[in-house]
Specification:
Order of helices and strands: HHHHHHHHHHHHHHHHHHHHH
CATH architecture of the largest domain: Up-down Bundle
CATH class of the largest domain: Mainly Alpha
Protein name: Sodium:proton antiporter
Helix content: over 70%
Largest sheet: none
Distance between the termini: 42 Å
Number of helices: 21
Subcellular location: Cell membrane
Function: Na(+)/H(+) antiporter that extrudes sodium in exchange for external protons.
Strand content: under 5%
Number of strands: 0
Oligomer: single chain
Structural class: mainly alpha
Shape: elongated
Family: Belongs to the monovalent cation:proton antiporter 1 (CPA1) transporter (TC 2.A.36) family.
CATH topology of the largest domain: Na+/H+ antiporter like fold
Keywords: Antiport, Cell membrane, Ion transport, Membrane, Sodium, Sodium transport, Transmembrane, Transmembrane helix, Transport
């Protein structure tokens, strides 16, 4: 308990340090906690490896998926197939082949398990790093799409490889139907959980309780999916995407409360998770210390292979014209370098490595377990610490074209669209007709400047908000109806292909804030 409290306070401190020196706080948290773990007075606390993924993966995946939408996946399905499935398979194949060839003591099942452990980049690390370096939005969106589902494929292969290593059997093609069936079942569970959460929220009036439901849901659907031998990763992501699709225009306060709630949850969970990764490094080094020097050549080859496979794959996609027809990613060698550098391993890699059983079914030690764990931790450090600390420098040197203008263009277009629908709703409102003409004129003027408020112009000042809160109740009600119509339009736009969810969320948040100011 003391360790947990220390990690929570440490996260807050490290976030502040990271903001000042412009470095990602998850990487700093890992380094600081690893350094602390080696101090003589540091307590020896070990975490059950089987608890790492169930504790940290559901809320972090849910938080990341909330920032996306079904339309993004429909638009970027090629990215999903090429990066979250085929690249994972290619990485597993290359790493397994090299490990089997270079280290004679490693059997094929253990080699495949190693490939599955080091294959999936960590979506949490990537988002935490990419969000601080003004990376082009199209690259961030591609990395988000890759990161949300790549763990699913890797975990299925890992489980099959471990079962074969323990039983002495082989890894066969049954992995493919197992993955497809597990993903399909998880998708159904995610849809069902989203429906259940929506139904519960209609009966629970308390805003905080409704926000708390969204914290329980990812844990519940993840554990249920794993119990039914489905993909917990897919189930959590589908739950978050479906809840976003079911969002209602009138839930302004709930959205604002939930957004703030999840910002805190995500920050603290990320900090604690990477803090534990750093602490576990001490025990890995202590446990494998006698053999580490002998592992160095093989580990170096594995680390180089992980980086080269990702670079080669991105180069191949570039030569073929990018992942998407309308929006080429990567579109240049510079973008290939960035996407390669952002292949950071993290929580899933460490958790899977530590979850390797120590013995086989016959009671004999699992072959080359020490090498697999040491190689996995080395890949984690090489792909996370180095790129995490140098990505800001790399982005400054590459000077990629800034696509924020496109994001601002979408924000402006959505703001104008919301204003048009708000004016139409106000003009057709029966309640508005009960107001004196001069009051209707005031409302019309305010709705006519709605786009400026949504675009964040200086018009949206505290004094204006204060005066708005003092208007008559009937005027407030008319404005609520108009703003409800505007929110409905933005939510519909968010579901359509071609609309960046981030642009829609910016406009929607400003609409929600505008509505909250009407409450007395």
């Amino acid at each position: 308990m003391i360790l947990l409290v220390g990690l929570l306070f440490g996260t807050v401190l490290v976030v502040g340090i990271g903001e000042r020196i412009r470095l990602p706080y998850p990487v700093l948290m890992l380094l600081f906690s690893a350094g602390f773990a080696f101090l003589p007075f540091s307590p020896e606390i070990r975490i059950d490896p089987e608890l790492i993924l169930p504790l940290f993966l559901p809320p972090l995946l849910f938080a990341a998926a909330q920032r996306s939408s079904w339309s993004v996946f429909r638009l970027r399905w090629r990215s999903l197939v090429l990066l979250a499935v085929l690249l994972i398979v290619a990485t597993i194949a290359v790493v397994a082949g090299l490990a089997w060839w270079i280290v004679p003591a490693v059997g094929l099942p253990s080699a495949i398990a190693l490939g599955a452990i080091v294959a999936p980049p960590d979506p949490v690390a990537v988002e935490a790093v990419a969000g601080k370096v003004n990376m082009p939005r199209r690259l961030v969106s591609t990395l988000q799409t890759e990161g949300l589902f790549n763990d699913a494929m890797a975990i299925v292969v890992f489980q099959a490889a471990v079962a074969a290593a323990v039983s002495g059997g082989d890894v066969g093609w049954e992995i493919v139907p197992a993955f497809l069936l597990g993903a399909a079942g998880a998708g159904l569970l995610g849809l069902g959980m989203a429906w259940l959460v929506g139904t519960l929220n209609r009966f629970v009036p308390n805003l905080v309780a409704r926000s708390a439901t969204t914290l329980v849901a990812p844990y519940a659907v993840y554990l249920l999916a794993e119990e039914l031998h489905c993909s917990g990763v897919v189930a959590v992501v589908v739950t978050a995407l479906e809840l976003g699709r079911r969002a209602r225009p009138q839930d302004s306060e709930e959205r604002l409360t939930r957004t703030s709630f999840w910002e805190v949850v995500e920050l603290l969970t990320t900090g604690v998770a990477f803090g534990l990764v750093g602490i576990e490094m001490r025990y890995v080094i202590e446990d494998e210390g006698a053999d580490l020097l002998g592992f160095v050549p093989g580990i170096a080859v594995i680390c180089a292979a992980v980086l080269l496979v990702r670079f080669s794959w991105m180069m191949g996609i570039l030569k073929l014209g990018g992942t998407e027809r309308r929006n080429k990613v990567p579109g240049s060698l510079k973008e290939v370098l960035v996407l390669t550098w952002c292949g950071m391993r993290g929580l899933a890699t460490l958790a899977l490595a530590l979850a390797l059983p120590a013995t086989t079914a016959s009671g004999e030690p699992l072959e080359s377990r020490n090498f697999v764990i040491a190689a996995a931790c080395a890949v984690l450090l090489v792909t996370l610490v180095g790129p995490g600390l140098t990505l800001p420098w790399l982005m400054r040197r590459l000077r990629l074209p800034d696509d924020r203008a496109e994001l601002e263009r979408q924000e402006h277009a959505l703001a104008r669209r919301a204003q048009r629908v708000a004016l139409e709703a106000m003009e057709s409102s029966g309640i508005a007709q009960k107001l004196p003409p001069e009051r209707r004129a005031v409302l019309a003027k305010r709705m006519s400047s709605l786009h400026a408020l949504l675009e964040g112009d200086a018009e949206d000042d505290p004094e204006k908000m204060r005066r708005l809160r003092q208007t008559l109740e009937v005027m407030d009600q008319v404005q609520r109806e108009a703003l409800d119509a505007a929110r409905h339009e933005v939510l519909e736009a968010r579901k359509s292909p071609g609309t960046d969810p981030e642009a829609a969320d910016v406009v929607l948040r400003r609409l929600d804030l505008r509505t909250v100011t009407l409450e007395r």
